[in-house]
Design goal:
By secondary structure, the protein is of the alpha+beta class. It is 40% helix and 18% strand. The chain has an eight-stranded mixed beta sheet with strand order 5-6-9-1-10-11-12-13. Helix 6 crosses helix 7 and helix 8 packs across helix 9.
């Protein structure tokens, strides 16, 4: 039987507020355990939660960016369950009336096509604390610093049909929340993580199969691995005549497997009810308009503009707009070069620079070569001061901190390109005179030796001869 996978993601994005969603406690990462949990976060007697307005604005911002419905009235509810890292015995979340309703976002597939993924809802909630198993032999420690940290839970429709589609969607949401500056997207610190709902059904059937939820996956690679492993597990069960049970499973990256944590709870198991300590949240149109005015140019808009106005390929435009920081860097290079050659700028940012960053394990924000420094290299290529090959040497020197800009390095290392036609012609004559056998073979029809002569001339000039002039003069000499 041919099977079809059905995937939906629940993404938890930690909102970039300075304080928690219902208290004034700090949200900074890395503080000593239990130093950022106040009486409100702990749910001590007599304390009351107060909603963080900035978290509300960030949720609205996300909703507008995915063309979603913004609820005029939403309600906070208590989600009741008992776990050591949940100090109040319940989590304040949203259930029936979330702040953000139905929306959608487009993702780019590997074949270059686009697919629209529906967003069911996005709701505000507080995070729980963290259980620490590795630091206490035979015991579990509880760090409540995260308790009360604001989260936006983004729930997709079950629209994805492969692990790669799920990763593309997750990456798109990751890019978007960083563009909007509502989440730093740091997966290592737990700021951006997801649960994946996976089920199988016979190809062509409309009814969904029984789903398993894979909890708290915090990397793109692990999302793909976990989903593919779960697909294989469910198919094995179904094809052997078994039944998939609805449950929550944990992905073990070391063992490359998913394993059962607990049977999947239904909503009524959590005994949701409106939180009596929090009034319904009423959002007026004026606030929505104010937030809309702060929206930046969104990734798809920027990508389309790069294609339309800069004549970049859709692929280059998509790569350059994959993160806001990379797009900003590219535009800074473009501005510093006078915007004369967008393609050249794109090639260097996505090629030489990105390659060096990947090799060094650095983010674009950590680049040793600033946008202005890279622009100084491209300007000198454009005015024929240096060749493209020499430019790579200059870039490497900038990367190593050997100069403030391209001009400093070109001067210090004597890398200025030879453009004097008389000097180049002399080099051409010398190379042809020193290689009579190859010259004879060329004139007898072995035209591939043209590259040999170019290489010898560039070697004689120590790479400084202008390649275009070398080619032009060499063609004339060989024709004569």
């Amino acid at each position: 039987m041919e099977w079809e996978v059905v995937i939906g993601l629940e993404i938890h994005a930690q909102l970039a507020t300075k304080s928690k969603i219902f208290s004034g406690a700090a949200t900074a990462y890395g503080a000593p355990p239990n130093t950022q949990a106040c009486a409100v976060d702990l749910g001590l007697p007599g304390v009351l939660p107060v909603l963080n307005q900035e978290a509300v604005r960030m949720a609205i911002k996300f909703g507008l960016a995915v063309d979603a419905e913004i609820a005029e009235r939403s309600v906070f509810a208590r989600k009741n369950y008992f776990y050591p890292d949940l100090p109040k015995g319940y989590q304040i979340s949203q259930f029936e009336l979330p702040i953000v309703g139905k929306g959608h976002i487009s993702i780019e597939l590997e074949d270059g096509t686009e697919k629209t993924v529906g967003i069911t809802r996005a709701h505000l909630e507080e995070d729980a604390g963290k259980s620490l198993h590795e630091d206490f032999h035979g015991q579990t420690g509880i760090d409540l610093n995260r308790a009360g940290t604001p989260l936006l839970e983004i729930v997709s429709e079950p629209d994805m049909r492969s692990a790669k589609e799920a990763v593309a969607y997750m990456k798109k949401i990751h890019s978007l929340v960083r563009y909007l500056e509502i989440c730093d997207g740091n997966m290592q610190e737990g700021s951006f993580r997801c649960d994946a709902n996976v089920s199988m059904r016979p190809k062509g059937r409309e009814k969904f199969g029984t789903r398993a939820e894979l909890k708290n996956i915090n990397s793109f690679r692990n999302v793909e691995r976990a989903i593919n492993i779960e697909i294989e597990r469910q198919i094995d069960i179904l094809e052997s005549g078994g039944t998939v049970i609805q449950e929550t499973r944990l992905f073990d990256a070391d063992k490359n497997e998913t394993r059962s944590m607990r049977t999947k709870e239904e909503a009524n198991d959590y005994r949701y009810f409106p939180d009596p300590d929090l009034l319904p949240l009423v959002i007026e149109q004026q606030l929505i308009d104010e937030v809309r005015a702060t929206l930046p140019e969104l990734p798809n808009e920027k990508r389309d503009r790069f294609v339309r106005e800069l004549n970049l390929s859709p692929y280059d435009a998509a790569v350059l707009t994959s993160t806001r920081e990379l797009a900003d860097y590219f535009e800074a290079v473009l501005a510093a070069t006078g915007s004369k050659d967008p393609k050249q700028c794109a090639n260097w940012v996505t090629g030489e620079l990105s390659g060096a960053l990947n090799k060094a394990g650095l983010d674009i924000t950590e680049s040793p070569v600033s946008a202005q420094q890279l622009a100084s290299v491209l300007i000198r290529i454009s005015d024929n001061t240096i060749s493209g090959k020499i430019a790579k040497t200059v870039f490497e020197a900038l990367w190593e901190g050997e100069g403030a800009d391209a001009d400093t390095i070109i001067e210090a290392k004597g890398l200025k390109q030879v453009t004097d036609s008389g000097a180049i012609e002399a080099m051409v004559d010398e190379v042809l005179a020193n290689n009579p056998a190859q010259l004879q073979q060329y004139r007898e029809g072995k035209e591939q030796l043209f590259g040999f002569f170019v290489g010898q001339i560039m070697k004689a000039s120590k790479g400084k001869a202008n390649p275009a002039q070398v080619n032009e003069l060499l063609k004339k000499k060989l024709a004569g």
